[in-house]
């Protein structure tokens, strides 16, 4: 049967009113993004396996901003996948997670009051819980971009999810999530260097992680040290997240989009920023060209310097300040 590529309107819990790519078949629209490799969004209806039910609709107007409307979480997940697809396509020239133009899929309403979201290499899909008391779905833009980026990492460097490579894998997801958020920079979710600031995961409104000073969460590390590979990958990611902040914005106090940051350096020397776009381009090129499954912090430094040399030249100010940002997290000198 003929399928037409359409653009629907939706209202998510976090992204507000957005347009989402849909597909029309007969008189019914489906949450299948025809312009982005047919990426699909499914309703698991509390199940913890399978794909559940593809979201469909009679008028191509989806969700109402309330979590009680089943489509609302679907809108945010679909929008997150769409924004992340567009970011990789428009900024890095990458078409889809594998770079082959083929969409993956998202599943929302996983389990009961499940407070997490995850990427799974086996289904090559993203999954989102509904949060504590099924009140704050884990479907914010940065969380979606984080999970989808796990797919990009799996399809490229393949950073193993343990030891220092595991921290770099996690940081890659946080870094690209921040880049996606800044790229969209919508009034309802302006770009920031916070992770999960909208999902109220602790019940006190605080974000899950901070990139300017990762130790603000009480667990993540600001700088590299010998042995950091033995802590949880969501905390050994701290120094690389901190590298991205330092490279993007520089050390010290700064306000970006109304959020105050204050980033220290390991050696107390100042870091001059290269800018967020250069930092993201360097990280992406390092990930896709030079990092491997066992890359550690020292290897990540080398990979980004090679990437900076490719993109900007070894005599560039950008190259020098890329290295200075690594010194700021006690990697290299
Ligand atoms: N939300 C977590 C993550 O993407 C799930 C996990 O720990 N695997 O890292
Ligand atoms: Zn992750």
From TrEMBL:
<protein>
    <submittedName>
        <fullName>M4 family metallopeptidase</fullName>
    </submittedName>
</protein>
<feature type="active site" description="Proton donor">
    <location>
        <position position="234"/>
    </location>
</feature>
<comment type="similarity">
    <text>Belongs to the peptidase M4 family.</text>
</comment>
<feature type="active site">
    <location>
        <position position="147"/>
    </location>
</feature>
């Amino acid at each position: 049967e003929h399928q037409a590529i359409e653009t629907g309107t939706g209202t998510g819990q976090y992204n507000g009113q957005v347009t989402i790519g849909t597909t029309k078949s007969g008189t019914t629209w489906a949450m299948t993004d025809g312009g982005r490799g047919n990426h699909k969004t499914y309703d698991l209806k509390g199940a913890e396996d399978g794909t559940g039910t593809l979201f469909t609709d009679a008028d191509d107007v989806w969700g109402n901003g309330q979590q009680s409307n089943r489509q609302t979480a679907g809108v945010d997940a679909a929008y997150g996948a769409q924004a992340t697809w567009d970011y990789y396509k428009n900024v890095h020239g990458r078409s889809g997670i594998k770079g082959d133009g083929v969409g993956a899929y998202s599943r929302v309403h996983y389990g009961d009051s499940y407070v997490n979201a995850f990427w799974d290499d086996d289904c090559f899909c993203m999954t989102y819980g509904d949060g504590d008391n099924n009140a704050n779905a884990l479907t914010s833009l940065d969380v979606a971009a984080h999970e989808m980026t796990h797919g990009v990492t799996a399809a490229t460097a393949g950073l193993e999810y343990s030891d220092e490579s595991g921290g770099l894998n996690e940081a890659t997801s946080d870094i690209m999530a921040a880049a996606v958020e800044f790229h969209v920079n919508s009034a309802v979710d302006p770009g920031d260097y916070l992770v999960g600031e909208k999902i109220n995961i602790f019940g006190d409104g605080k974000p899950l992680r901070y990139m300017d000073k990762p130790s603000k969460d009480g667990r993540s590390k600001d700088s590299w040290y010998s042995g950091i590979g033995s802590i949880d990958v969501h905390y050994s990611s701290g120094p690389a997240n901190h590298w991205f902040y330092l490279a993007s914005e520089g050390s010290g106090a700064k306000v970006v989009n109304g959020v105050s940051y204050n980033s220290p350096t390991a050696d107390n020397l100042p870091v001059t920023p290269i800018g967020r776009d250069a930092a993201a381009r360097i990280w992406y090129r390092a990930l896709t060209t030079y990092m491997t499954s066992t890359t550690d912090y020292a290897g990540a430094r080398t990979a980004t310097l090679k990437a900076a040399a490719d993109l900007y030249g070894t005599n560039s100010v950008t190259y020098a300040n890329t290295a200075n940002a690594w010194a700021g997290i006690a990697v290299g000198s």
